[in-house]
Write a structure and sequence with these properties.
Helix content: 10-25%
Largest sheet: 6 strands, antiparallel, barrel
Strand content: over 45%
CATH superfamily: predicted glycosyltransferase like domains
Strand order of the largest sheet: 1-2-3-6-5-4
Number of domains: 1
Radius of gyration: 13 Å
Number of helices: 2
CATH architecture: Beta Barrel
Order of helices and strands: HEEEEEEHE
Distance between the termini: 18 Å
Oligomer: single chain
């Protein structure tokens, strides 16, 4: 999957998810947060703890049958920002750029955004 240029990234429509999917650190098996926003190049999580910025993570996203024929996808993402949630201050919002994903799994991410997302341009990576 070709990486978009900085200009293209700014034009990508972000999608908020109406289905709250947990994102798991594939190395520690701990839930990092819940997926609430996604594009083909990045995602936003709601997290209980703040996330260190500019750190790479190996994430696993468990899938339901309606999303794909496989049980989960694994991809690498880099944390770009983290801040307290404006509505629920005991939570943190963290933005991640997807830095390594197979083409097949990238299509699944695209499908998730199209199936469960709603257009929203309020966040950036």
């Amino acid at each position: 999957m070709a990486k978009p240029t900085p200009q293209e990234r700014r034009r990508l429509k972000r999608r908020n998810l109406s289905y709250y999917l947990p994102i798991i650190d594939n190395e520690t098996q701990q839930v990092m947060g819940h997926l609430v926003d996604i594009t083909p190049s990045g995602l936003m999580l709601d997290c209980k703890e703040p996330i260190a910025v500019n750190q790479n993570f190996n994430f696993r996203l468990d899938l339901m049958e309606e999303l794909a024929t496989k049980a989960f996808i694994v991809f690498d993402a880099r944390s770009k920002w983290c801040r307290p949630d404006a509505i629920q201050p005991y939570l943190f919002n963290a933005g991640f750029q997807i830095i390594n994903i197979t083409p097949e799994d990238a299509e699944i991410v695209k499908h998730i955004a199209e199936k469960y997302g709603t257009l929203d341009n309020s966040f950036s990576f």
